[in-house]
């Protein structure tokens, strides 16, 4: 229990993958942690219990669609009633769909933007309201290396993640006078459910593009998020840190 003792955090999409690794990192650092999710309420509750049992912190399991304004409002009401503060938001929840230009559908665009962009903005907005009360807070948005460099077959997804970079920069400017820092992390090829369906040849081709020669892990990303929300990064805002093993050198 170190740098985040006494602080509270909310990790959207916190029940699996990068979000779960981040939730564990923040709890290990002493924060009380709320984890959000939608697909497996029972599993999410079990994860919250696991965090509380393992790290001795208070936890919440918050079920709801990140792109639904009513669900987002209810989430932050739950946090306020339970803890009366919020110090950290990790905007992690997201979805990925791939299609070449001619196969992109309007429904695909709407789904990606609703989760990856509207969801991120709604959560940032609600978190900022609570953080502004205390004149302090740290928000980390999860974008993607594809939002920085693009990728074939990833136009809609990359556009949604590029939007996250834009909202990070804008929010950092707006919220700095209120003592709220906003940064982003851009993971590269990370071993999560999002890439689990890739065949061995595709995986080998992806790894060949990585300077460090290996696929990343959720813990690789969680370590950077943990740094950004800590006092060690107290003078950092508006930054986008790549966690990609050298894909964009």
What does it look like?
The chain is an alpha/beta fold and 249 residues long. It has one domain (8-243): 3-Layer(aba) Sandwich (Rossmann fold). It is 47% helix and 15% strand. The protein is built from 8 helices and 7 strands, in the order E-H-E-H-E-H-E-H-E-H-H-E-H-H-E. It has helices at 17-28, 41-55, 69-83, 106-134, 145-149, 155-175, 200-208, 218-228, and strands spanning 8-11, 32-37, 59-63, 88-91, 137-142, 180-187, 240-243. It has a 7-stranded parallel sheet, with helices on both faces. Strand 1 (8-11), helix 1 and strand 2 (32-37) form a beta-alpha-beta unit. Helix 1 (17-28) runs parallel beside helix 2, helix 3 (69-83) packs parallel to helix 4 and helix 4 runs parallel beside helix 6 (155-175). The model has no long low-confidence stretch (mean pLDDT 94).
List the helices and strands and how they pair.
Blueprint (H helix, E strand, L loop, with lengths): L7 E4 L5 H12 L3 E6 L3 H15 L3 E5 L5 H15 L4 E4 L14 H29 L2 E6 L2 H5 L5 H21 L4 E8 L12 H9 L9 H11 L11 E4 L6
Parallel strand pairs: 1-2, 1-4, 2-3, 4-5, 5-6, 6-7
Helix pairs in contact: 1-2, 1-8, 3-4, 4-6
Q: How many distinct helices?
A: 8
* Number of separate domains: 1
- Any idea of the CATH class? Alpha Beta
Instruction: Give helix % range.
Output: 40-55%
Give the percentage of residues in beta strands. Answer: 5-15%
- Name given to the CATH architecture: 3-Layer(aba) Sandwich
What is the strand arrangement across the widest sheet? 3-2-1-4-5-6-7
Estimated structural class: alpha/beta
What CATH calls the topology is Rossmann fold
Largest sheet: 7 strands, parallel
What's the CATH H-level superfamily name?
NAD(P)-binding Rossmann-like Domain
Output the helix-strand order.
EHEHEHEHEHHEHHE
Low-confidence stretches: none
Radius of gyration: 17 Å
